[in-house]
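INFO batch 0412 | record 1 of 1 | parsing
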Amino acid sequence: MANVVIMPRQGQSVESCIITTWQKKKGDRVETGDILFSYETDKSAFDEPAQVSGTVLEVLAAEGDVIPCLDPVCIIGEPGEDISALLPKKDADAAAPAEEAKEEKPAAAEAEATVSESDGERVFISPRARHLALDAGADLTKVTPTGPHGRIIERDVNKALDAGFTAATEAVEAFLAGKPFAAEEPAKADEIPAPAKAAEAAPSAEDLRAYVEEPMSNIRKVIAKSMHASLSEMAQLTLNSSFDATNLMAFRAKLKEAGEALGLGKITVNDMVLFAVSRILPSYPEINANLIDNTFRKYKHANVGMAVDTDRGLLVPVLFGAEKMTLASLAAETKTLAAKARDGKLTPDEMSGGSFTVSNLCSMGVESFTPVINPPQTAILGVCCTVNRVKADGTVYPAMGLSLTFDHRAVDGAPAAKFLKELCTALEHFDLLLAK
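INFO prediction complete | emitting tokens
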């Protein structure tokens, strides 16, 4: 009996996923556990294994398609099985005789496929590419498709339009110069003077303007949308401060020297900052909160997000109940979440529900910056590098900078400044903080 494979739901907040790669194609034999396709949510990547053995009888979505969760993606069964009842209506309609399909094809379907006027062959084209072609008057018969399954996509139309524009420009330039616009017989290699050969090696004006276009990734779109909403909808203000990191660095050196022997694992300065933040946050409910439609969501625990730089973009996994963790357990959890983020294995639930975020650019040598709040949170902390400064008595000390951005709609300047000051004090006396 044939089985329909649906797009999984990865987390309660996920409505759709994008198919990135098909590992199997129509007609392939699969065994239970074989990877059928890879897909992404807004911030995570997954592989979908086959739950049954059989043959891929139909593929219902192409690479790059955004598929609503729980919608059918492909059908697995045995060769010769009747799967017409399992096909979505649009695919069942496509299986009808050509003339009948041509008469009954709804207007919406024309966005995915049009018919060439020159030879009557069906041309598959994405909606964006079709609208661009119609607006520009492009001849689709001269467009080379590069999309999935021979489909014309937007870049193909743009390439054809650029080629047409270049040809037209060359014709006009030739006409204005009084030269016939025709390809001349190329000179033989031994007839080309040395200066001419050298000139050919120099980049042309067109080469100097060369560029490569690539579509914005799904995760980049999500980050862009979130950051734009953050800056356009919040009243953001940043406070900058610093603290004497002498004791913090000395304690870190002790941990590095003897931590492994004591079974503590690797504990970084960032872990120590996250630990201190988790202890201070519960005393500031407006900072340990989300603001959603003029309603505060004040969290009972310090659910601290940690910004992680990955090849796919910035991800923010959450340390839930961080104030209950020991320094060693918090450090271990940060390593686990960071590894999952870089491998694209975080689930949406591991990146939602944060009450506050810490973004650390210390290793990049950044002395001060303005972190952007992760909506709908009300604040974010930026951690900067250490800079040598001089005290009044002439003592040189390492000063570590902290940048607190807060939403002035939710938090006033005084409590934000108090939070930052208390955090600086806790980090200056980190060994005493551990004793609390």
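INFO post-check: Residues 106-184 form a domain with the Dihydrolipoamide Transferase fold (CATH 4.10.320.10).
INFO record closed
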